[in-house]
Amino acid sequence: MREITLRQVEVIRAVMMRGTISGAAEQLNxxxxxxxxxxxxxxxxxxxxxxxxxxxxxxxSVEAGAVFDQISNVxxxxxxxxxxxxxxxxxxxxxxxxxxxxxxxxxxxxxxIRSIRKRYPDLFIDLNILKIEETVDYLLLERGEFVIMSSLxxxxxxxxxxxxxxxxxxxxxEGHPLATRKVISVHDLADQPLIGVDLNDPYGAKLAAPFxxxxxxxxxxxxxxxxxxxxxxxxxGLGVAxxxxxxxxxxxxxxxxxxxLAEPSGVTVYVAHKKGRALSGFAExxxxxxxxELVATAEGTFDPVTTTGx
Length: 310
Prior knowledge:
Elements: H1 6-18, H2 21-28, H3 32-46, E1 51-54, E2 57-60, H4 65-90, E3 95-100, H5 102-105, H6 108-119, E4 124-129, H7 135-140, E5 146-149, E6 158-166, E7 168-173, H8 186-189, E8 194-196, H9 202-213, E9 220-223, H10 227-235, E10 241-244, E11 256-260, E12 267-274, H11 281-299
Parallel strand pairs: 3-4, 3-5, 8-9
Antiparallel strand pairs: 1-2, 5-12, 6-12, 7-10, 7-11
Helix pairs in contact: 1-2, 2-3, 6-11
């Protein structure tokens, strides 16, 4: 069985398109003698004449018409393959679905997605905001590839991987008497109108932990379900709160003063996904970008000398 290589196909097509050996050599950026030898070798090995030579030009022979038709089809397929690869590189016709806890979605998610969009400009991104109790169904039913959460997801079918950890910070309305301090203790906050999250909620328990460790039972004057609600209430002068650094990771937050907490504290953010499910390259890149933004925020947690509401 006579065989033809892809290199021979490439050379034959170049000669067919340019009509001369020198033109084909220029197109392929090789020497003309090499092109001439390969064409001659191909014709001899196939036992057919591919081109007629007329006044220095190479004209496809009539008997090789079917061969040239197939060569054109091969190159059309290669072009389609290249277009498909280019589309995949840009994220065309591809959907990336994932979810996040509200605290991460507020600021960190937008920064991560900005990087994802730069890498894959045509990728469709479906971001959901979930409560922790909604994550198991979301992952196990494969509604999305992964979830970014500030608590471990306790399910045998789900794998959790730590991304970053940041300290808690105290947040106060601008003009509050405690705002003049560089560092704030839970003892400073104990007699203030305290805004928090239900202690039975995993996130609320993390916010209450420094108080309990110091022997103080936190008494809330009001509660919010999500970190954004707590931040908003404080900004409007309704009380003070502890919050994770990721929830107030914006450079400029008018109406709000952020101060480091004196006591040891921390919130860990995890990425959770269904065990055994292979993540797409888009998902793996997205997780990488989330990790980078979370770590950068944790490492840059507010300098007590310079941090203000501005």
